[in-house]
């Protein structure tokens, strides 16, 4: 560090103005760029929209040689390269979508020193021909984009990305800059370790996105809830609706279109041409609602996305943050809205139980889900919870989330918790039978359903002891006990089971605070941002 020639400083500033047309660096960019221009390594944790790209693009233009950008986003390389070329930057990419001719042309330009930047898919690094090519080229820096993909702890681990750890072994003198928009302390540590960046310049931005209003409500009739949100607050706005499955993407898109809303589907099962056409309409036209699986969105730079709606529970807080972060890149008020229900928890647990990988992997997934549930069920400011998850502690309630705008009431829920846990305990004794939350709730409500009668559950002492709460409220109790670790859900039928902590509640040595379900969810007319 500190070896940067004085000329380089002017260079960075000039490139910012002349090529990118901006007057000033944003917070953090200058230090990062100076450090990399001077030949140092950097690790950049900056939220989506923070301006990470310039942090490697400018050093690549200031230093001599070609900047090599490792990126998993193959589908976006063409767009990224086109955008750079439009600015007069000499850029190219190498990935599996090219034919031999195209690849040869880029390789030739690279060796001739005619490229400022070349984008490379990580799996290319496994190909000996690629590493030999890089040996013969003059490289100004390596940029490792979406660096969280090297972290097993994270939500988006890609085995191919482990290849990037060989970069500094093979080319020890070339500076590296790793960048990501995901930054829990665990992921930060793992990236640092795997890429050996302990001595690098670490930049950690604030992860707050103050213009995004976070709202999480319970799922009743998801399509109707979504429609109300779009009609009352986001008529004519562009937005993204995330669904878990391809089938629900199709259903929801059809539903919105039938309601007169210009919606398009996007998921990995669609023909590549259809996907590309839908994506480009979303980017170029106004007011399109993209209904998508999480296959959509990484690297999409559309500034005026006014809302991101989740109709299914994200698998992790990291995922939730990334997906909601696609709203409001232009800094204007935007909504992050999530509807979730008990069924989501059951479904996610089932996915975890049946996921390939070892026990440690399943435990990690389960920890991620628990943190997401805790965020959903908190009575505190959502933003405070979110930022704390990313290691930013001690922030004040934000005034721009549902918890702040309409503080949820909490009440002493020890007795309902005990009623529910006693029911689960009794059902658990029926060794050869497995019952989900629905059966427990039917018993508490004293409903003589065929399944209740068949198993003689109307003879249990807990039958009918929960008529003081409605079904919806019981579902909320189940969700909150799950979120608090006082109940577990297992197996393919979503069987409820006690945890070690449940015993304390049953014994009466631990009390349980619960959040009261609001009669009506927050809408802009009742105090939203817009
Ligand atoms: P990220 O990769 O962190 O999500 P980008 O690099 O795509 O973010 O930047 C987000 C937007 O901010 C882009 O439109 C970019 O051109 C713009 N931007 C970045 N740095 C600056 C700057 N110093 N001044 C003005 N705009 C900037
Ligand atoms: Zn808040």
From TrEMBL:
Q: Does the keyword DNA repair apply?
A: yes
Listed EC numbers: 5.6.2.4
Q: What is this protein called?
A: DNA helicase RecQ
Which cofactor(s) does the record list? Mg(2+); Zn(2+)
Q: Which reactions does this protein catalyse?
A: Couples ATP hydrolysis with the unwinding of duplex DNA by translocating in the 3'-5' direction
Give the UniProt keywords, A-Z.
ATP-binding, DNA damage, DNA recombination, DNA repair, DNA-binding, Helicase, Hydrolase, Isomerase, Metal-binding, Nucleotide-binding, Zinc
> Which gene does this sequence derive from?
recQ
According to the UniProt record, what class of enzyme is this? isomerase
Domain (Helicase ATP-binding) spans 33-201
Family designation:
Belongs to the helicase family. RecQ subfamily.
Residues in domain Helicase C-terminal? 222-373
One GO MF annotation is: hydrolase activity
